[in-house]
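U., I forgot to send this yesterday:
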Amino acid sequence: QVQLVESGGGLVQAGGSLRLSCAASGRTLSPYGMGWFRQAPGKEREFLAAITWNGARTDYGDPAKGRFTISRDNAKKAVYLQMNSLKPEETAVYSCARSMTYFDGDLYTTAGAYSDWGQGTQVTVSS
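Result:
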């Protein structure tokens, strides 16, 4: 079993940046793909970014392309999401997740491919 804990959220002005962290306790993250999602009140969960188990490949959802960067440090059991040029409509709870499969080198863009989720960290972007 693994526990994921996100941090780094908070209040930021439009155009600002935040770096979210996802720390794992318990089992290692290194064999697993990881992803970041967000969910705003009254809206469906939205895929933002995914990274393979070794960090060699990444993929981004349309809202994140060109502005967000996912990375990981397996030695620290951590995954990060750097977010730039944030917009007020991106106010949401941001969550990291661990994929069901491991060592497969695939990137997963749907929530159903992930088995473990953190509680999320609130990001509020003011106008």
